[in-house]
Amino acid sequence: MKKILLAVAAGAMLVACNSSDPQTTASANQETSTASEEQASAGQSAVQDDESQKNVVQVAASSPDHTTLVTAVKAAGLVDVLTNAGPFTVFAPTNAAFEKLPAGTVEDLLAPEKRSDFRSILQYHVYVGVLNTDNIEDGQSLGQVNGGRVTMGVKDGKVTVNGANIVASIPTSNGVIHVIDQVLLPQ
């Protein structure tokens, strides 16, 4: 009989500890649900993390030399893709590289009706996997995200991709960025 009374008393205490004002609980559940829905609809790029190493998009966005690339990635709807875990090797043309294109090219590609073309060009700059410059071999061919292929070159310690010079390499949380001096155009 004592065991039953103890079990009932323990159960009553657990219920009392877990109960709260139903209105407060409903409000808290609604706020949590709304925040979760907003984050889910925003995609991976909406995740806030100020402690981890920056991903490829965050690194590019913090570079004054890559504002054109970042604008293009946003316009093509690739921000969430490139903030995912990866790993990615991104060949990132500088603003100066975009300026070498014929006048009006970038503006034309930013038009909504050209989004798929621009997306393909940007995906031609992305390899799935991490490829550090010390692992690149002369003549090595890589399959890019858009289905095209690029050819790596190594000569006198300099590394190129389709003839574009890799001028810097930056490790990120989800891969590596190789800064290049030309825009890669699929053939």
TrEMBL record:
- As recorded in UniProt, coiled-coil segments are none
Matching entries from PROSITE patterns are given as:
FAS1, PROKAR_LIPOPROTEIN
The FAS1 domain extends over 53-184
Task: Mark out the compositionally biased spans (Polar residues).
Answer: 20-29
Annotated spans, Disordered: 20-55
* InterPro entries listed in its UniProt record: Adhesion/Biosynth-related, FAS1_dom_sf, FAS1_domain
PANTHER family assigned: FI19380P1, PERIOSTIN-RELATED
Q: What is this protein called?
A: Fasciclin domain-containing protein
Organism field: Pontibacter ruber
